[in-house]
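Readers of this paper often ask what the protein records in our data store actually look like. Such a record has a labelled line for the sequence and another for the backbone structure tokens. Nothing more is needed to write down the fold, since each code stands for a local backbone conformation. The record that follows is passed on verbatim for readers who wish to inspect the format.
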Amino acid sequence: MAQKQTAPSPAELEFGGPLGTAALMLLLPLTLFHLLLTCHSGPCSLLSLPSELPPISAFWSSGALLLLLFWLGFQATLYLLPMGKVTEGRMLRDKSHLQYPLNGFRCLGLTALLVGLGLAGGLPFGNLSEMLLPLASAATVIAFFLSLFLYLKSFTVPPSALAPGGNSGNPIYDFFLGRELNPRFGSFDLKYFCELRPGLIGWALINLALLLREAERQRGWPSLAMGLVSAFQFIYVADALWYEEAVLTTIDIIHDGFGFMLAFGDLVWVPFIYSLQAQFLLNHPQSLELPVAGAICLLKAIGYFIFRGANSQKNTFRRNPSDPSVAGLETIPTATGRHLLVSGWWGMVRHPNYLGDLIMALAWSLPCGVTHLLPYFYFFYFVILLVHREYRDERQCLQKYGLAWREYCRRVPYRIVPYIY
């Protein structure tokens, strides 16, 4: 018999409840377009509007919408190709396990191959850099209608298929958070597909288009600053897809429903906001001396070392606690039968992967110089995002592990940054 899903109480609602989520659904698109317009303006002031706004027609193009629909269809086709292994996700409330294809890195490789062939054939890929505004508008519209479809679809599934927090009964709040945990058509998982495919790979392609357009303007090679930003962020994208299986243990997959929050974040925010540094450099070139570039590369390497080391240690321990690389680590037993790591990376701070993420975010921004605040928007946004996510993680872990989690917090007092936070 299916387990009944209990709706969260008003005290458990996140993001300020219905009013907060309604405000976010308005503020997120406004922030997106403010940043895109500001990034292409002369002063590039984060705290003021551009002196001249483009005509309304500049925000929409049927060609951009068709291009984006083609992109989503292309990535969906690659997702369905029988390449790579298939793995099981976490056990659901009805004791079942969903199957997930792990072919994201292969999809990235095939996409790169086809883009390379297009460039060799004379495809004017740099023109994509001039279409960011209508593409962002089209992506926003698609995210909204996808969220509406998901909300309506969620009323056709049993209670056991609903997300823990997205079925409050308030339509605004549930539309934002998402009611259904794993919306699917057959084996095609909509949330899992959007999480790492079209937006993440699209981010890398936007960066490539901006790099190519800068090279055209300079009649040669792109700048060192643009090269570093593009390389750093491509490594991040490739890493996420190489370790695709790790996303199956994240809060996005195992806890959050698929609603406007994730649909807008995956399809709009990631490709168009995460590429802000490259957008800035195209319109506001920065010179970068080799010693400074070397120091930034070192900072990036340190961040990646922490990020990858912490995530790999956690994922290895979850898969096989007897693995020689983690067998000697100290742990705390919990009432659930699972154990909490209390040494290694996870004995330094409670979220070492977040620390590595923040260091890398800073390294992505530094090639843009220090004369403008806008390239650092991503870093400051990421601080807020990870602190909020850390709060959600801590609350869920306390509910799940109880006294064991309190003991872990006592032994590892710092959350993200040692001796600071």
Notes: The chain has a mean pLDDT of 90. Residues 14 and 20 are 8 Å apart (CA to CA).
